[in-house]
Amino acid sequence: MKKVVTSSQMGEIDRLTTEEFGVPSLELMENAARSVFEAIVGELGGTVKGKQAVVLCGRGNNGGDGAAVARMLANAGASVHALLIGRVSGTSGDARINFDRYLDECGVAKSDFEIGSIEEIEAVWAGLESSDFRVDVIVDAVFGTGLTRPVEGIYKKFLASPLKYARHRSVLLVSIDLPSGIDADKCETIGFNFKPELTVTFTSPKMANAMTPAAFEQGRLFVREIGSPCELIERADSSIFMADEFDVTDWLKATEFTHGSYKKKRGAVVIAAGSKAYAGAAVLAANGAIRSGAGIVTVAVPEIAHPAVSERVLPEVMVRAVSASEAGTLTPKSLDEITDLKSTADAFLIGCGITREPPAAEFVKRAVAERELPLVIDADGLNAISPLENMESGRSPIVLTPHEGEFKGLSGITGGLLAADRIKTVREFAVRHNVICVLKGERTITASPDGTVVINQTGNSGLGKAGNGDNLAGIIAGFIAQTEALRSKAQEEDPFKDVLRAVVAAVYLAGLAGDIAAQRFGKRVMTASDVRDSLAAAFKELTGVKSP
């Protein structure tokens, strides 16, 4: 996970990197520029020789990064047209050094670099449109993390003109640190902003990099190390993190298959789900769990739903019929009938498709009260315990997986949740109730009882369809079961920490499978079953990725 920091915390990390660890600030700027240059080279097929680039520079350090990128592009064989909004004489520090270096090494006249009026901006882009200079890449290095108010006037023109130029052309748009026009510390946008295809940020993501809707404006996000010690990042007073691929690869390594692996060592999942009306939910949850890598998956369903479930689950899933109410739902008696399954299981999932009938709700309440292993609660299982009362500490972890509507029922809040509210509200909820809460949405947020919040960056709007919640719940339960089965290797005394790692990895991987499904089928067509079937490709994509 990568810690999410504020712009002031990032400034402090940069300062201490120089003052305490002796890394020159100019070296940090050079490293930052190098990471942007390398990202551009990668996007343009491995070389920029013969490519045409425009680099937009502000007068601060973000502009200094841009000038260094322009120099590197030119030295690598690209034709570069860098533009500074203002005068070089009005700049200072490391930025000034890089502006002067760009002008000297690339043989550029200040008059071709400095922009001082809207008329000059219009003339530049009119000239580019009428010339043979076909732009391949435009780099936004105007504001970075320093902006706190909307972009207006000449600055807006400076950023909008290249966007207009690129609208009907094949141009790679890149922002350094943040798209100019975005406030680094806000989840919401504050007005007009540059809209790149990718953003390269440094050391740690900022809130606007991590949370929507601001994060939707940045395109793909690359987080690059530029020389700040991990110790300084750890010191930053933040308990908000952004999940990345290494959370999954680290989890995969911790739960890897060995020569002695067999089904009873790979984690057993018990699922109590489904009803006469909603057999499909039990099928999706069970299939998600078995596809996640769990060794044994057993789904207990009301006897009336047994035929519909057993005919549709993957053949590796075991199905047990249990007592049903008159409405075809689970009952408290159903819980007694799976005691043997729970006694040998590593994770227990309840709620998918059980309905809101009173017998099913009583089943859930008993399961919560009597829990002896990690318990995942989804869908109508959440409705059964809403509003949530405090969970006793010292018991096995509970993982709740609500969407926003279900979360409102659990927490008792009313009205919509803004992006910033989501983090604060979910964290307070998890701490108060001693649960791990997975709030599903545009950026799924996972909060734990110790106040840690993890923002997931995979997934897409195509996942907002029936069945994907059941699928995710099954994957989460499967990951937890595998973690619990191998707990002795983890050497972790706090079970919540191990379970949190499993949940974070499961949410990331499920979102990645959703992204793969969207590429294969399109968001309009993709189904929860398509997402489940894309899990294999998601695992494969991450195979061999090593932690930094």
Residue share in β-strands: 5-15%
How much helical structure, as a percent, in the residues? 40-55%
Instruction: Report the end-to-end length measured between terminal Cα atoms.
Output: 11 Å
The CATH class label of the largest domain is: Alpha Beta
- At CATH level 2, the architecture of the largest domain is 3-Layer(aba) Sandwich
Write down the overall mean pLDDT: 94
Coarse morphology: elongated
What is the number of domains?
2
Biggest sheet: strands side by side, in what order?
Answer: 1-9-18-17-16-15-14-13-10-11-12
Give the class from helix and strand content and strand pairing: alpha/beta
What low-confidence regions span 5 or more consecutive residues with pLDDT below 50? none
CATH topology of the largest domain: UDP-N-acetylmuramoyl-L-alanine:D-glutamate ligase
Main beta-sheet annotation: 11 strands, mixed
The beta-strand count equals 18
CATH superfamily of the largest domain: Ribokinase
The total count of helices amounts to 23
Please compute the radius of gyration using only Cα atoms.
Answer: 26 Å
